[in-house]
Amino acid sequence: MDSVGKEVALAYRDNTPQLQVEKRLSPVYGGQVVAEAYEELDDMVTCGLLSHPNDKDEEYTPSEETIVKALCLHVAHDCNLRCKYCFGKTGNFGMTRELMPLSVATASIDLLLDKSGPRHNLNVDFFGGEPLLNFDVVKDAVKYGEEKANALGKHVDFTVTTNCVLLDEEVISFVNEHNMLVVLSLDGRKEVNDKMRVMPGGNGSYDRVIPGLAKCISTRDPNSYYVRATYTRHNLDFTSDVLHLADLGARSISTEPVIGGGDREYGIQPEDISAIEAEYENLLRQFVERHKQGRGFLFYHFNIDLDGGPCLTRRLSGCGAGIDYLAVSPTGSVYPCHQFVGKPEFRMGDVFSGSLNQAIIRQFRNAHVYSKSGCGTCWARFICSGGCHAAAFGSSGDMLVPDKVACAIQKKRIECGLTAQAILRNTAQPGT
Q: Reduced to 3 states, what is the DSSP secondary structure of residue 117?
Protein backbone atom coordinates (compact mmCIF):
# COMPACT_ATOMS: atom_id res chain seq x y z
CA MET A 1 0.00 0.00 0.00
CA ASP A 2 1.40 3.45 -0.93
CA SER A 3 1.71 6.30 1.57
CA VAL A 4 -1.43 8.18 0.55
CA GLY A 5 -3.47 4.97 0.52
CA LYS A 6 -2.28 4.03 4.01
CA GLU A 7 -3.03 7.46 5.48
CA VAL A 8 -6.47 7.64 3.85
CA ALA A 9 -7.30 4.12 5.08
CA LEU A 10 -6.33 5.02 8.63
CA ALA A 11 -8.46 8.15 8.50
CA TYR A 12 -11.37 6.17 7.04
CA ARG A 13 -11.02 3.65 9.84
CA ASP A 14 -11.38 6.49 12.34
CA ASN A 15 -14.53 7.79 10.58
CA THR A 16 -12.83 11.05 9.58
CA PRO A 17 -15.05 12.88 7.04
CA GLN A 18 -13.70 13.10 3.51
CA LEU A 19 -13.41 16.90 3.52
CA GLN A 20 -11.27 16.82 6.66
CA VAL A 21 -9.05 14.13 5.15
CA GLU A 22 -8.60 16.14 1.97
CA LYS A 23 -7.80 19.30 3.93
CA ARG A 24 -5.14 17.54 6.01
CA LEU A 25 -3.47 15.46 3.29
CA SER A 26 -3.83 17.63 0.18
CA PRO A 27 -0.76 19.79 0.91
CA VAL A 28 1.32 16.61 0.88
CA TYR A 29 -0.25 14.49 -1.88
CA GLY A 30 -2.51 16.83 -3.83
CA GLY A 31 -6.26 17.25 -3.50
CA GLN A 32 -7.28 15.09 -6.46
CA VAL A 33 -5.07 12.16 -5.40
CA VAL A 34 -6.46 12.21 -1.86
CA ALA A 35 -10.06 12.50 -3.05
CA GLU A 36 -9.68 9.61 -5.48
CA ALA A 37 -8.10 7.39 -2.80
CA TYR A 38 -10.91 8.14 -0.33
CA GLU A 39 -13.68 7.61 -2.90
CA GLU A 40 -12.14 4.36 -4.17
CA LEU A 41 -11.98 3.04 -0.61
CA ASP A 42 -15.56 4.11 0.07
CA ASP A 43 -16.77 2.45 -3.15
CA MET A 44 -15.13 -0.85 -2.16
CA VAL A 45 -16.88 -0.77 1.21
CA THR A 46 -20.22 0.08 -0.44
CA CYS A 47 -19.83 -2.77 -2.95
CA GLY A 48 -18.95 -5.25 -0.21
CA LEU A 49 -15.36 -5.78 -1.34
CA LEU A 50 -14.19 -4.43 2.01
CA SER A 51 -15.94 -4.25 5.35
CA HIS A 52 -16.08 -1.08 7.35
CA PRO A 53 -13.87 -1.41 10.44
CA ASN A 54 -16.82 -0.59 12.68
CA ASP A 55 -19.19 -3.11 11.14
CA LYS A 56 -20.08 -5.87 13.59
CA ASP A 57 -19.38 -9.38 12.37
CA GLU A 58 -22.08 -12.01 12.40
CA GLU A 59 -22.17 -14.40 15.33
CA TYR A 60 -20.00 -17.48 14.83
CA THR A 61 -20.74 -20.88 16.34
CA PRO A 62 -18.20 -23.60 15.49
CA SER A 63 -19.57 -26.78 13.99
CA GLU A 64 -19.72 -29.79 16.33
CA GLU A 65 -18.94 -32.14 13.44
CA THR A 66 -15.51 -33.79 13.44
CA ILE A 67 -14.24 -34.63 9.98
CA VAL A 68 -10.51 -35.34 9.75
CA LYS A 69 -9.00 -34.14 6.48
CA ALA A 70 -5.26 -34.32 7.04
CA LEU A 71 -2.60 -36.14 9.04
CA CYS A 72 1.02 -35.30 9.80
CA LEU A 73 2.86 -38.59 10.31
CA HIS A 74 6.07 -38.32 12.34
CA VAL A 75 7.66 -41.26 10.60
CA ALA A 76 11.05 -40.42 12.08
CA HIS A 77 11.81 -39.02 15.51
CA ASP A 78 15.43 -38.88 14.51
CA CYS A 79 17.45 -36.64 12.23
CA ASN A 80 20.75 -36.57 10.38
CA LEU A 81 21.14 -32.82 11.06
CA ARG A 82 21.42 -30.95 14.34
CA CYS A 83 19.82 -27.63 13.45
CA LYS A 84 20.35 -25.21 16.32
CA TYR A 85 16.84 -23.73 16.17
CA CYS A 86 14.91 -27.01 15.78
CA PHE A 87 11.59 -26.72 17.63
CA GLY A 88 11.52 -30.52 17.61
CA LYS A 89 14.64 -30.58 19.81
CA THR A 90 16.93 -31.80 16.99
CA GLY A 91 14.35 -34.17 15.66
CA ASN A 92 13.07 -36.26 18.56
CA PHE A 93 10.59 -33.79 20.10
CA GLY A 94 11.95 -34.55 23.55
CA MET A 95 11.01 -38.21 23.14
CA THR A 96 12.92 -41.41 22.38
CA ARG A 97 14.69 -41.41 19.02
CA GLU A 98 12.79 -43.92 16.92
CA LEU A 99 11.24 -44.63 13.54
CA MET A 100 7.55 -45.23 12.93
CA PRO A 101 6.72 -48.88 12.12
CA LEU A 102 4.61 -49.53 9.03
CA SER A 103 1.85 -50.85 11.28
CA VAL A 104 1.46 -47.40 12.86
CA ALA A 105 1.56 -45.67 9.47
CA THR A 106 -1.17 -47.89 8.01
CA ALA A 107 -3.31 -47.62 11.17
CA SER A 108 -2.98 -43.83 10.87
CA ILE A 109 -4.21 -43.90 7.30
CA ASP A 110 -7.08 -46.16 8.34
CA LEU A 111 -7.99 -43.61 11.03
CA LEU A 112 -7.93 -40.79 8.50
CA LEU A 113 -10.16 -42.67 6.06
CA ASP A 114 -12.53 -43.73 8.82
CA LYS A 115 -12.96 -40.22 10.23
CA SER A 116 -13.02 -38.34 6.93
CA GLY A 117 -16.80 -38.70 6.52
CA PRO A 118 -17.95 -37.55 3.08
CA ARG A 119 -14.67 -35.75 2.44
CA HIS A 120 -13.16 -36.94 -0.86
CA ASN A 121 -9.74 -35.25 -0.99
CA LEU A 122 -7.42 -35.96 1.95
CA ASN A 123 -3.80 -35.17 2.84
CA VAL A 124 -0.95 -37.01 4.55
CA ASP A 125 2.37 -35.29 5.33
CA PHE A 126 5.47 -37.35 6.16
CA PHE A 127 7.38 -35.39 8.75
CA GLY A 128 10.15 -35.69 11.31
CA GLY A 129 12.92 -35.36 12.30
CA GLU A 130 13.97 -36.47 8.87
CA PRO A 131 11.35 -38.74 7.22
CA LEU A 132 13.76 -40.05 4.59
CA LEU A 133 15.54 -41.93 7.37
CA ASN A 134 12.44 -44.14 7.21
CA PHE A 135 11.95 -44.07 3.45
CA ASP A 136 10.86 -47.71 3.15
CA VAL A 137 7.89 -47.02 5.44
CA VAL A 138 7.11 -43.83 3.51
CA LYS A 139 7.00 -45.78 0.25
CA ASP A 140 4.85 -48.60 1.63
CA ALA A 141 2.49 -46.15 3.38
CA VAL A 142 1.97 -44.20 0.15
CA LYS A 143 1.12 -47.34 -1.77
CA TYR A 144 -1.19 -48.54 1.02
CA GLY A 145 -2.93 -45.16 1.21
CA GLU A 146 -3.43 -44.94 -2.53
CA GLU A 147 -4.94 -48.43 -2.76
CA LYS A 148 -7.14 -48.09 0.33
CA ALA A 149 -8.41 -44.63 -0.64
CA ASN A 150 -9.13 -45.70 -4.21
CA ALA A 151 -11.20 -48.63 -2.96
CA LEU A 152 -13.31 -46.18 -0.94
CA GLY A 153 -13.69 -43.67 -3.76
CA LYS A 154 -11.40 -41.18 -2.08
CA HIS A 155 -8.06 -39.55 -2.94
CA VAL A 156 -5.02 -38.86 -0.75
CA ASP A 157 -2.38 -36.26 -1.61
CA PHE A 158 0.97 -37.00 0.00
CA THR A 159 3.66 -34.54 1.11
CA VAL A 160 7.18 -35.11 2.37
CA THR A 161 9.19 -32.50 4.27
CA THR A 162 12.92 -33.13 4.02
CA ASN A 163 16.26 -31.55 4.88
CA CYS A 164 17.54 -32.89 1.52
CA VAL A 165 20.55 -34.81 2.92
CA LEU A 166 19.15 -38.12 1.60
CA LEU A 167 17.42 -36.66 -1.46
CA ASP A 168 18.78 -38.92 -4.21
CA GLU A 169 17.60 -40.27 -7.57
CA GLU A 170 15.47 -43.01 -5.96
CA VAL A 171 13.62 -40.54 -3.74
CA ILE A 172 13.12 -38.01 -6.54
CA SER A 173 11.81 -40.71 -8.87
CA PHE A 174 9.35 -41.96 -6.24
CA VAL A 175 7.92 -38.56 -5.26
CA ASN A 176 7.55 -37.64 -8.92
CA GLU A 177 5.85 -40.93 -9.78
CA HIS A 178 3.32 -40.46 -6.98
CA ASN A 179 2.83 -36.70 -7.53
CA MET A 180 3.88 -35.88 -3.97
CA LEU A 181 4.30 -32.30 -2.79
CA VAL A 182 7.86 -31.81 -1.56
CA VAL A 183 8.99 -29.29 1.06
CA LEU A 184 12.75 -28.75 0.85
CA SER A 185 14.56 -27.08 3.74
CA LEU A 186 17.42 -24.68 3.00
CA ASP A 187 17.94 -21.31 4.68
CA GLY A 188 19.48 -19.45 1.74
CA ARG A 189 23.04 -18.23 1.45
CA LYS A 190 25.73 -20.73 2.41
CA GLU A 191 26.98 -18.72 5.38
CA VAL A 192 23.42 -18.23 6.68
CA ASN A 193 22.39 -21.86 6.22
CA ASP A 194 25.58 -23.24 7.72
CA LYS A 195 25.33 -21.11 10.85
CA MET A 196 22.17 -22.94 11.97
CA ARG A 197 21.70 -26.09 9.87
CA VAL A 198 24.65 -28.26 10.80
CA MET A 199 25.68 -31.90 10.52
CA PRO A 200 26.13 -33.95 13.75
CA GLY A 201 29.86 -33.13 13.71
CA GLY A 202 29.18 -29.39 13.51
CA ASN A 203 29.95 -28.78 9.84
CA GLY A 204 27.49 -26.87 7.70
CA SER A 205 25.02 -28.76 5.50
CA TYR A 206 24.82 -26.44 2.46
CA ASP A 207 27.28 -28.23 0.19
CA ARG A 208 25.81 -31.61 1.17
CA VAL A 209 22.21 -30.78 0.27
CA ILE A 210 22.52 -28.50 -2.78
CA PRO A 211 22.99 -31.26 -5.42
CA GLY A 212 19.86 -33.18 -4.40
CA LEU A 213 17.76 -30.03 -3.99
CA ALA A 214 18.83 -28.66 -7.38
CA LYS A 215 18.12 -31.99 -9.07
CA CYS A 216 14.70 -32.27 -7.45
CA ILE A 217 13.42 -28.80 -8.37
CA SER A 218 14.70 -29.17 -11.93
CA THR A 219 12.27 -32.09 -12.41
CA ARG A 220 9.18 -30.48 -10.84
CA ASP A 221 6.46 -27.95 -11.53
CA PRO A 222 6.70 -24.93 -9.17
CA ASN A 223 3.29 -25.80 -7.74
CA SER A 224 4.52 -29.23 -6.64
CA TYR A 225 7.25 -28.10 -4.25
CA TYR A 226 8.56 -25.21 -2.27
CA VAL A 227 11.93 -24.45 -0.77
CA ARG A 228 11.44 -23.40 2.85
CA ALA A 229 13.90 -21.15 4.65
CA THR A 230 13.98 -20.07 8.29
CA TYR A 231 15.30 -16.66 9.23
CA THR A 232 16.66 -15.75 12.65
CA ARG A 233 18.05 -12.66 14.31
CA HIS A 234 21.30 -13.43 12.48
CA ASN A 235 19.82 -12.78 9.01
CA LEU A 236 17.19 -10.09 9.20
CA ASP A 237 18.33 -9.22 5.66
CA PHE A 238 16.48 -12.36 4.52
CA THR A 239 15.57 -10.87 1.15
CA SER A 240 19.08 -11.84 0.08
CA ASP A 241 18.35 -15.43 1.07
CA VAL A 242 15.07 -15.52 -0.85
CA LEU A 243 16.81 -14.16 -3.95
CA HIS A 244 19.65 -16.65 -3.47
CA LEU A 245 17.13 -19.49 -3.53
CA ALA A 246 15.53 -18.02 -6.66
CA ASP A 247 18.95 -17.81 -8.30
CA LEU A 248 19.48 -21.50 -7.50
CA GLY A 249 16.42 -22.21 -9.65
CA ALA A 250 13.70 -22.35 -7.00
CA ARG A 251 10.43 -20.99 -8.34
CA SER A 252 8.36 -21.64 -5.22
CA ILE A 253 9.81 -20.24 -1.99
CA SER A 254 8.76 -19.70 1.62
CA THR A 255 10.69 -18.05 4.41
CA GLU A 256 9.52 -18.21 8.00
CA PRO A 257 10.67 -16.54 11.22
CA VAL A 258 12.32 -18.89 13.69
CA ILE A 259 9.86 -20.54 16.09
CA GLY A 260 10.43 -19.60 19.72
CA GLY A 261 14.00 -19.05 20.80
CA GLY A 262 13.16 -15.82 22.61
CA ASP A 263 15.78 -16.64 25.23
CA ARG A 264 18.44 -17.63 22.67
CA GLU A 265 20.83 -15.39 20.79
CA TYR A 266 19.16 -16.25 17.48
CA GLY A 267 15.60 -15.59 18.71
CA ILE A 268 13.65 -12.68 17.25
CA GLN A 269 12.91 -9.92 19.74
CA PRO A 270 10.19 -7.22 19.77
CA GLU A 271 12.82 -4.59 18.97
CA ASP A 272 13.55 -6.41 15.69
CA ILE A 273 10.05 -5.81 14.31
CA SER A 274 10.78 -2.50 12.60
CA ALA A 275 13.78 -4.01 10.79
CA ILE A 276 11.72 -7.05 9.76
CA GLU A 277 8.89 -4.86 8.45
CA ALA A 278 11.37 -2.83 6.40
CA GLU A 279 12.88 -6.05 5.06
CA TYR A 280 9.49 -7.34 3.88
CA GLU A 281 9.04 -4.07 2.00
CA ASN A 282 12.47 -4.60 0.47
CA LEU A 283 11.46 -8.15 -0.49
CA LEU A 284 8.25 -6.80 -2.01
CA ARG A 285 10.20 -4.41 -4.24
CA GLN A 286 12.59 -7.14 -5.37
CA PHE A 287 9.71 -9.59 -5.89
CA VAL A 288 7.83 -7.18 -8.14
CA GLU A 289 10.96 -6.17 -10.02
CA ARG A 290 11.85 -9.77 -10.81
CA HIS A 291 8.35 -10.37 -12.16
CA LYS A 292 8.66 -7.35 -14.40
CA GLN A 293 11.98 -8.72 -15.65
CA GLY A 294 10.38 -12.08 -16.47
CA ARG A 295 12.24 -13.81 -13.62
CA GLY A 296 9.28 -14.12 -11.27
CA PHE A 297 8.81 -16.73 -8.59
CA LEU A 298 6.09 -17.76 -6.17
CA PHE A 299 6.53 -16.49 -2.62
CA TYR A 300 4.24 -18.34 -0.24
CA HIS A 301 3.22 -15.40 1.93
CA PHE A 302 2.57 -13.05 -0.98
CA ASN A 303 0.32 -15.57 -2.74
CA ILE A 304 -2.99 -14.30 -1.34
CA ASP A 305 -6.12 -15.37 -3.21
CA LEU A 306 -8.19 -12.20 -3.59
CA ASP A 307 -11.00 -13.84 -5.55
CA GLY A 308 -11.57 -17.18 -3.84
CA GLY A 309 -9.43 -18.35 -0.98
CA PRO A 310 -10.40 -20.60 1.91
CA CYS A 311 -13.96 -21.09 3.10
CA LEU A 312 -15.38 -18.96 5.92
CA THR A 313 -14.79 -21.65 8.55
CA ARG A 314 -11.11 -21.86 7.62
CA ARG A 315 -10.81 -18.07 7.68
CA LEU A 316 -12.17 -18.08 11.23
CA SER A 317 -10.45 -21.12 12.68
CA GLY A 318 -7.14 -21.25 10.83
CA CYS A 319 -5.28 -24.44 10.01
CA GLY A 320 -7.78 -26.81 11.63
CA ALA A 321 -5.28 -28.23 14.14
CA GLY A 322 -6.95 -30.49 16.68
CA ILE A 323 -10.12 -30.65 14.59
CA ASP A 324 -9.55 -31.76 11.00
CA TYR A 325 -5.73 -31.79 11.07
CA LEU A 326 -3.92 -34.17 13.45
CA ALA A 327 -0.38 -35.39 14.03
CA VAL A 328 0.79 -38.91 14.88
CA SER A 329 3.96 -39.83 16.79
CA PRO A 330 6.07 -42.91 15.89
CA THR A 331 4.25 -44.93 18.58
CA GLY A 332 0.80 -43.98 17.27
CA SER A 333 -0.14 -41.29 19.79
CA VAL A 334 -2.33 -38.56 18.31
CA TYR A 335 -1.77 -34.82 18.90
CA PRO A 336 -3.44 -31.65 17.55
CA CYS A 337 -0.52 -30.81 15.24
CA HIS A 338 3.19 -31.45 14.72
CA GLN A 339 4.21 -28.66 17.10
CA PHE A 340 2.23 -30.17 19.99
CA VAL A 341 3.73 -33.64 19.61
CA GLY A 342 5.45 -34.73 22.82
CA LYS A 343 3.40 -32.46 25.08
CA PRO A 344 1.49 -34.94 27.28
CA GLU A 345 -1.35 -32.53 28.08
CA PHE A 346 -2.21 -32.45 24.36
CA ARG A 347 -2.20 -36.20 23.71
CA MET A 348 -5.60 -36.93 22.14
CA GLY A 349 -5.52 -40.74 21.95
CA ASP A 350 -3.95 -43.25 19.59
CA VAL A 351 -4.52 -44.52 16.07
CA PHE A 352 -5.31 -48.07 17.16
CA SER A 353 -8.28 -47.31 19.41
CA GLY A 354 -9.61 -44.62 17.08
CA SER A 355 -11.01 -42.76 20.09
CA LEU A 356 -10.03 -39.09 20.37
CA ASN A 357 -10.17 -36.83 23.42
CA GLN A 358 -13.28 -34.73 22.88
CA ALA A 359 -12.24 -32.13 25.48
CA ILE A 360 -9.11 -31.30 23.48
CA ILE A 361 -11.12 -31.18 20.26
CA ARG A 362 -13.52 -28.70 21.90
CA GLN A 363 -10.57 -26.66 23.16
CA PHE A 364 -9.23 -26.27 19.62
CA ARG A 365 -12.67 -25.86 18.07
CA ASN A 366 -13.25 -22.86 20.32
CA ALA A 367 -9.91 -21.26 19.46
CA HIS A 368 -10.89 -18.90 16.63
CA VAL A 369 -10.64 -15.23 15.74
CA TYR A 370 -13.50 -14.24 18.05
CA SER A 371 -12.10 -16.02 21.11
CA LYS A 372 -8.46 -15.05 20.70
CA SER A 373 -7.24 -11.92 22.43
CA GLY A 374 -7.26 -8.93 20.06
CA CYS A 375 -8.16 -10.91 16.94
CA GLY A 376 -11.85 -9.99 16.72
CA THR A 377 -11.11 -6.36 15.85
CA CYS A 378 -7.93 -6.89 13.81
CA TRP A 379 -8.11 -5.91 10.14
CA ALA A 380 -6.15 -9.02 9.12
CA ARG A 381 -8.33 -11.54 10.96
CA PHE A 382 -9.93 -13.15 7.89
CA ILE A 383 -6.55 -13.75 6.25
CA CYS A 384 -4.45 -14.48 9.33
CA SER A 385 -7.26 -16.57 10.92
CA GLY A 386 -5.96 -15.94 14.42
CA GLY A 387 -2.43 -17.15 13.86
CA CYS A 388 -0.71 -20.34 14.98
CA HIS A 389 -2.13 -21.99 18.11
CA ALA A 390 1.26 -23.52 18.94
CA ALA A 391 3.08 -20.20 18.60
CA ALA A 392 0.56 -18.59 20.95
CA PHE A 393 0.87 -21.42 23.46
CA GLY A 394 4.65 -21.35 23.25
CA SER A 395 4.91 -17.62 23.95
CA SER A 396 2.17 -17.14 26.55
CA GLY A 397 1.14 -20.60 27.75
CA ASP A 398 -2.34 -19.86 26.38
CA MET A 399 -3.25 -20.49 22.77
CA LEU A 400 -5.94 -17.80 23.01
CA VAL A 401 -3.25 -15.14 23.54
CA PRO A 402 -1.38 -14.71 20.23
CA ASP A 403 2.31 -13.95 20.18
CA LYS A 404 2.70 -10.21 19.53
CA VAL A 405 5.87 -10.61 17.47
CA ALA A 406 4.20 -13.25 15.28
CA CYS A 407 1.15 -10.99 14.84
CA ALA A 408 3.24 -8.04 13.72
CA ILE A 409 5.15 -10.16 11.20
CA GLN A 410 1.97 -11.75 9.88
CA LYS A 411 0.24 -8.41 9.35
CA LYS A 412 3.23 -7.00 7.51
CA ARG A 413 3.40 -10.05 5.24
CA ILE A 414 -0.29 -9.73 4.46
CA GLU A 415 0.08 -6.02 3.70
CA CYS A 416 2.98 -6.71 1.35
CA GLY A 417 1.16 -9.66 -0.22
CA LEU A 418 -1.91 -7.58 -0.97
CA THR A 419 0.30 -4.86 -2.45
CA ALA A 420 2.13 -7.39 -4.62
CA GLN A 421 -1.15 -8.79 -5.94
CA ALA A 422 -2.45 -5.30 -6.71
CA ILE A 423 0.72 -4.36 -8.60
CA LEU A 424 0.93 -7.61 -10.57
CA ARG A 425 -2.78 -8.06 -11.24
CA ASN A 426 -2.53 -6.46 -14.70
CA THR A 427 0.87 -7.97 -15.50
CA ALA A 428 2.24 -11.51 -15.52
CA GLN A 429 0.87 -13.77 -12.78
CA PRO A 430 3.21 -14.84 -9.93
CA GLY A 431 5.51 -17.63 -10.96
CA THR A 432 5.38 -16.91 -14.68
A: coil
Return the percent helix, strand and coil in the chain, to nearest 5: 45, 15, 40
Kind and range of the H or E element at 250?
Answer: none
User: To the nearest 10°, the Cα dihedral for 226, 231, 236, 242?
Assistant: -20
How many whole angstroms separate alpha carbon 347 and alpha carbon 361? 11
pTM above 0.90, yes or no: no
**Among the residues of 293-378, which ranges form H helices?**
312-317, 358-365
**Positions in the chain short of pLDDT 70:** 1-2, 48-64, 305-315, 317, 426-432
C-alpha span between 246 and 115 (Å, rounded): 40
237-245's contacts with Cβ under 8 Å and 24+ in sequence apart are 237/279, 238/188, 238/279, 238/283, 239/279, 239/282, 239/283, 239/286, 240/188, 240/189, 241/187, 241/188, 241/189, 241/192, 242/188, 242/283, 242/286, 242/299, 243/286, 243/290, 244/188, 244/189, 245/186, 245/188
Q: Which amino acid is at 399?
A: M
Are 163 and 79 spatial neighbours (Cβ–Cβ below 8 Å)? yes
What pLDDT is recorded for position 94? 81
**C-beta separation of 231 from 197 below 8 A:** no
Give 364-376 pLDDT, tens digit per residue.
999 988 889 988 8
pLDDT, residue 337, reads: 95
Q: Quote the longest CA-to-CA distance of the chain.
A: 71
Query: CB neighbours of 357 closer than 8 A, spacing ≥ 6?
Result: 347, 348, 349
